[in-house]
Structure formats: structure tokens, C-alpha cells
Amino acid sequence: MFCPDCGAEYEEGVFVCTECDVALSDDEDESESGEVEFAPLMESTEVVFFSLLTSRLEEADIPWFVQAEESLGLLPRDGRTAQAPGEQVAVIYVAKSRLEISRQLAESLDPVGAGTDD
């Protein structure tokens, strides 16, 4: 088997890549049918940020989907801290086994509107 992040080969039963320290998928995250368990990553209302983040997720081969929901005000929005609840947002979900690397990818993007005066 190969690390999905750096491509290094690893043996079954290894849970962290020795080359890049990425958490490797374990049996708890996938059912016997091969279904992936998803967790919420971030809310988005900005098309540009959404597009950049989902492109990065695709490049990293991280399974994701988006769902329109009413914000609970708990997740970061467009690379910034959580916003007030109640607004309609797009919630980006990622494979639970890849949540930490997905957070790192999201944090590496500049928040929409950062450095601009309103």
C-alpha cells in the first residue's frame, strides 16, 4: 500500500507514514463495504475560497462533498473563525480519516477578504 500524501510504500497495520507523518487510513474509518465516513471541515459562503479549497482537496485525493445547511456557528467559515449561526452556508465535508490534513490544507489558504478594509 502507498501513502496517499507522499506516495511512500507502507505495510498493512501501519497508521502513520514514516516519510511525511500523515495519518494513514485505518479500518475504523471504512466499513466492510468500503464506505467512507465523513466529518464537517468548514463552512463557505465565498465562491473563490470554496473553489480553492475543493481544488486542493482534489489534488490531495481527499474525498469530499458539500451540503447546503443552516450555520450553527461552530465551524470556521472561509478560512476565518466561526461566524454567527443562522445563515445558509455550504458545509464542506471530508473523509474523517483525512480530516487533519484537510484542516492543514484549509489553513494554508488565505482567508477571503484578508487584508482588505471594509
What labels would you give this structure?
single chain; 118 residues; alpha+beta; Alpha-Beta Plaits; 2 domains; 3-stranded antiparallel β-sheet; two-stranded antiparallel ribbon; 2 helices; 23% strand; disordered C terminus
Shape: elongated
Number-wise, the strands total 5
Q: First CA to last CA: what distance?
A: 49 Å
What is the tally of helical segments? Answer: 2
* Sequence stretches where pLDDT stays below 50 over 5 or more residues: 27-31, 114-118
Q: What structural category do the secondary elements indicate?
A: alpha+beta
Write down the secondary-structure element order.
EHEEEEH
CATH topology description of the largest domain: Alpha-Beta Plaits
Radius of gyration: 16 Å
- How many domains? The number is 2
